[in-house]
Amino acid sequence: MNKAEDQYPVQSGSTFAKGIFIGGLLGAAAALLFAPKPGRELRGDLSEKVGMVTDRTKEVAAVVSDKATELAKTVSTKTSDIAKTVNQGRNDVMESVRKASADVADEATKATSEVASASEEAKEDARKELNSTSL
Description:
Elements: H1 3-7, H2 13-33, H3 39-134
């Protein structure tokens, strides 16, 4: 590398693009200022362009606002539907658990009764056997 390359290194592509963009803006501003139009006409043109940009910005803002409101309503509706579905599922599960619990309680009651009956029968059989052996 020579001395000039060391002093002035090559800039990156993005720096070059920024330079072109800034140069274009400065050139456009200079063209407007040095245009062969009188000051009033130039100011009128600039005012008209600014008005058009402002109107277009308001239109875009209105469209964005409408879309955002519509999206918010859609999200609210979907969320409400999901909440209803989840709540219904929860109710179904709770009802199934209640039924299963009642069935288990009934089976336990039946089993208790059967065990008590079997125990009573075994007791009677043991008494009879004891009485028959002691005679």
